[in-house]
């Protein structure tokens, strides 16, 4: 097993545990680089964060390093959740609750999840590309989870499922939503639907915490001090 470091996070991983593309992105430092740079614009000390789509746990670990933050993270792919647990433990992060499973809007329902060689391509979309296997997952209600755990920040990278979730959930108590958009799956019309759904819930696009497909929506009022852009 190799011991990699990316974005300041220790990753104990063997090359044969991920696809060649994932391994290359890890060793060259590009793995989730945009998310790693911008997610800390969304998360602040003392936040209670719900993350959907743990992946290898790199972004999870970065969030958890923010002072006095508590993180609950859901990963639908059981094998990926096992790798993420290893990464979180290697970074000695006791403020993370990692949950293998699925949160969705509305009543619990059973859905198909398609596991692909490149873990970041695994999703609920059968038409996204060739897959290795299909598994069945029964969702829990996201709004109930948010209420039960007093969540105030939502972070997600769930390969297109964000459109349905953000459109159908209430997100009561959430102050900030940070997500990666997947316009290649639902087009600009899908992005419009996401932005309209969040606007109806009182969120505004926040350019101070957004870059490209990584976007922040916030409910905050008033002005903040000017922050010059750093690229």
Automatic annotation (TrEMBL):
Pfam family name, one: Methyltransf_21
GO MF, one annotated term: methyltransferase activity
GO biological process per UniProt: methylation
Boundaries of every Methyltransferase FkbM domain copy: 71-204
Key words, A-Z: Methyltransferase, Transferase
NCBIfam families the record matches: fkbM_fam
Name recorded for this polypeptide: FkbM family methyltransferase
Organism: Phyllobacterium endophyticum
Lineage: Bacteria, Pseudomonadati, Pseudomonadota, Alphaproteobacteria, Hyphomicrobiales
């Amino acid at each position: 097993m190799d011991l990699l470091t990316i974005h300041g996070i220790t990753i104990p991983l063997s090359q044969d545990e991920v696809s060649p593309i994932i391994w290359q992105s890890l060793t060259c430092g590009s793995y989730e680089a945009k998310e790693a740079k911008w997610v800390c614009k969304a998360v602040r000390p003392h936040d209670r964060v719900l993350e959907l789509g743990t992946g290898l746990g790199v972004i999870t670990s970065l969030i958890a390093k923010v002072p006095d933050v508590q993180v609950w993270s859901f990963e639908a792919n059981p094998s990926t959740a096992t790798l993420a647990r290893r990464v979180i433990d290697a970074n000695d992060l006791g403020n993370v609750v990692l949950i293998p499973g699925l949160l969705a809007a509305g009543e619990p329902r059973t859905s198909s999840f398609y596991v692909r060689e490149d873990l970041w391509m695994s999703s609920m979309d059968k038409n996204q590309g060739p897959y290795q296997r299909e598994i069945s997952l029964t969702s829990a209600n996201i709004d109930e989870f948010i209420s039960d755990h007093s969540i105030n920040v939502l972070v997600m990278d769930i390969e297109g499922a964000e459109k349905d979730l953000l459109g159908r959930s209430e997100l009561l108590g959430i102050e900030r939503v940070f997500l990666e958009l997947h316009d290649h799956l639902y087009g600009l019309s899908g992005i419009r639907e996401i932005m309209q759904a969040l606007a109806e819930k009182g969120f505004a696009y926040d350019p101070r915490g957004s870059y490209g497909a990584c976007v922040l929506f916030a409910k905050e009022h008033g002005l903040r001090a000017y922050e010059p852009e750093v690229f």
